[in-house]
Amino acid sequence: MLFGDSHAEQLIPPMQQLAAREGWNLRVETRSGCGVFGVSRDALQQDADRCVEWSEQEVRAIESDPTISTVVIVIRSDLVVGEPDPAPILSRLRDAGKQVIVFRDLPTVELFDAQGKRMTGPACLAAQESRDDACSWEAAQDLDWLTAAAHQLDIDVVDLQDLLCPDGTCHMITGDLVVYTDDNHFTGTFAKSLTGWLQRELVPLVK
């Protein structure tokens, strides 16, 4: 099962392709703006309450469903209020006999326009008037709270930062593809290109 928010949703096309190759029965449970372990900073109270309810409902459903063997969790960790402790939910899933795999989130674009707003991928490229790695920034060195917790619990991690920032610098262009459509989501074309990468990084982890 693929479980998470819009950062999980963007991986649906390559995950579907991978599932077809591997013979997996892929199921998807996602809700945009709902970070599974906490509430988005941008959420209204009503939406926040619904997110908490949705998350608990889905975790309980996964726990009780014997047909789900593996849960792949992908969320935008930097938008969740505070730094919640994901260990209880991760442990509940694992104690229910599920293999849990966590994705380290893609880095948010750390480039800003003259008004101080984060730049989207297309806007940055247009401003630079170049497609030759015109827009790049230094990768964060610290692990986010979810990845750190996964390591502490000895849960497998697939690292999107390693993909996008292989030399310690994050790139707006990879090969001939624009990576970001805004400041924190992949373009559809780039997302679809990830099937081979997922084959190498994810498949060996799935038991």
Can you walk me through this structure?
The protein is an alpha/beta fold and 207 residues long. It has a domain at 2-106 and 140-160 and 190-205: 3-Layer(aba) Sandwich (Rossmann fold), CATH 3.40.50. Helix content is 37%, strand content 15%. It has nine helices and nine strands. It has helices spanning 6-9, 12-22, 45-64, 87-95, 121-128, 145-152, 160-164, 188-192, 195-201, and strands at residues 2-4, 28-30, 70-74, 99-104, 136-138, 156-159, 169-171, 173-174, 177-178. It has a five-stranded parallel β-sheet. A two-stranded antiparallel sheet has the order 5-7. Strands 8-9 form a two-stranded antiparallel ribbon. Helix 2 (12-22) packs across helix 9.
Please sum up the structure shown.
With 207 residues, the protein is α/β, with parallel strands linked by helices. 37% of the residues lie in helices and 15% in strands. The protein has helices at 6-9, 12-22, 45-64, 87-95, 121-128, 145-152, 160-164, 188-192, 195-201, and strands at 2-4, 28-30, 70-74, 99-104, 136-138, 156-159, 169-171, 173-174, 177-178.
